[in-house]
């Protein structure tokens, strides 16, 4: 069992390692980017990457407080689903109105890698290999559709 401080330190070390690994990779526009803290530039739309004790995940989280607007954003992403899957190269799970770990209602489009543990550094290469191509593809997709969400 890990103490809270040790758990926090190990998670932090993972994200620092991931960030250093991704640092030389430019975004779809050829710019330097802070991949672990990806900013979509659109309020209430987030790209979330998680590395936990029993899974890793990556996804788009729509956190608009207005349920109807959240659903509208979700449907707008749905209109780009074929382009999304073509760019990402796989199907992701689409979940309308879920409750996140903070008790907030969000909608998600995500992919989960089960059976990995961020606390085990031997799993880090698997987690990084899972996250890296997906965040790069997500960035490429976002560059194409972002103008439709800016208003």
Coarse structural class: alpha+beta
Could you give the order of strands across the largest sheet? 1-2-4-3
Low-pLDDT stretches = none
Q: Roughly what percent helix?
A: 40-55%
Q: How far is the N terminus from the C terminus?
A: 47 Å
Largest sheet: 4 strands, antiparallel
The SSE order reads: HEEHHEEH
Radius of gyration: 16 Å
Proportion of residues in β-strands: 15-25%
Report the strand count: 4
Question: Average pLDDT value?
Answer: 96
Question: Would you mind describing this structure in some detail?
Answer:
- This protein has helices spanning 4-22, 67-79, 81-88, 124-145; strands at residues 45-51, 55-62, 93-99, 105-114.
- The protein is α+β, with helices and mostly antiparallel strands and 151 residues long.
- Strand 1 (45-51) and strand 2 (55-62) form a beta hairpin.
- Helix 3 (81-88) crosses helix 4.
How do the strands and helices of this protein lay out in sequence?
Blueprint: H1 4-22, E1 45-51, E2 55-62, H2 67-79, H3 81-88, E3 93-99, E4 105-114, H4 124-145
Antiparallel strand pairs: 1-2, 2-4, 3-4
Short summary of the structure?
The protein has helices at 4-22, 67-79, 81-88, 124-145; strands at 45-51, 55-62, 93-99, 105-114. It is α+β, with helices and mostly antiparallel strands and 151 residues long. It is globular, with a radius of gyration of 16 Å.
């Amino acid at each position: 069992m890990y103490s809270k401080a040790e758990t926090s330190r190990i998670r932090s070390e993972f994200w620092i390692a991931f960030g250093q690994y991704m640092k030389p990779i430019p975004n779809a526009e050829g710019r330097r980017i802070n991949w672990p803290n990806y900013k979509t530039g659109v309020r209430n739309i987030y790209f979330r990457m998680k590395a936990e004790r029993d899974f890793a995940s990556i996804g788009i989280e729509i956190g608009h407080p207005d349920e109807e607007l959240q659903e509208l954003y979700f449907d707008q992403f749905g209109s780009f689903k074929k382009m999304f899957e073509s760019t990402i190269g796989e199907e992701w799970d689409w979940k309308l109105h879920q409750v996140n770990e903070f008790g907030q209602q969000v909608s998600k489009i995500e992919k989960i890698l089960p059976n990995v543990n961020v606390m085990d550094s031997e799993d880090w290469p698997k987690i990084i290999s899972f996250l890296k191509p997906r965040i790069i593809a997500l960035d490429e997709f976002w560059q194409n559709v972002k103008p439709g969400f800016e208003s």
